[in-house]
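Incident review: delayed structure delivery

Summary: a single-chain prediction request sat in the queue longer than the usual turnaround. Root cause was a stuck worker, restarted by the on-call engineer. No data loss occurred. The affected request and its eventual output are reproduced below so the record is complete for anyone auditing the incident later.

Affected input:
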Amino acid sequence: MAKEAEKIGVIVVDVQVDFTKFKNGSLAVDGTDEAYIKTVEENTKKLKAAGFPIFGTQDWHPANHVSFFISHKGKVAFEVIKVHGKDQVLWPPHCIQNTPGAEVLLDKKLFKAFVKTATNPQYEGYSGFQDDGGQKTDLDKLLKKDKIKKLVVYGIATDYCVRATVLDGVAGGYKVIMIKNLSRGVAPDTSQKAIEEMKAKGVVVLDDVDLEKIKAN
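Output delivered after worker restart:
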């Protein structure tokens, strides 16, 4: 009997207003113009048409989140401090719950489900699977319910939320493919380092969506 093809799921990471130049977001990442959003949407449609369920992560901060510089008296944006013993970049306030900046910029009808991240004010939450305090999202349950074994991951930002989601996916036993040209990073050096780190963990990094390669890897 032929081996059953591994079920593939897609995770689109944090394509939200505040992370994009297209919408003048408060933490806009380079290369996130209207053309980028359009390309991500077109490729997400292509993957959905191929039969892959699409899941989205949505950064969903309380207004007093520990990662915001305004939560720390005398600190400025992009300063690095220690929080719970880990380095924490202090960000401008962004993706605050129930504000326009937290809106996802892609057609919501493409998605089977969204998981909200960074909802605990005391812990950073870059990964779609869990926050830095170990509090899990529903992502793993949703994927297991669909019997998904392989993940295709892309979005914003390569060096933070994409990286953390990919690495937690690997740690959770999934095969992971990361799409480089559908992702944008905060900084070139940390993005390159993140890609090397993913490759070292066995992640397949493809430049673009190639259905044959996605199925074969």
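Verification: Residues 7-62+96-216 form a domain with the Rossmann fold fold (CATH 3.40.50.850).
Action items: add queue-age alerting; document worker restart procedure.
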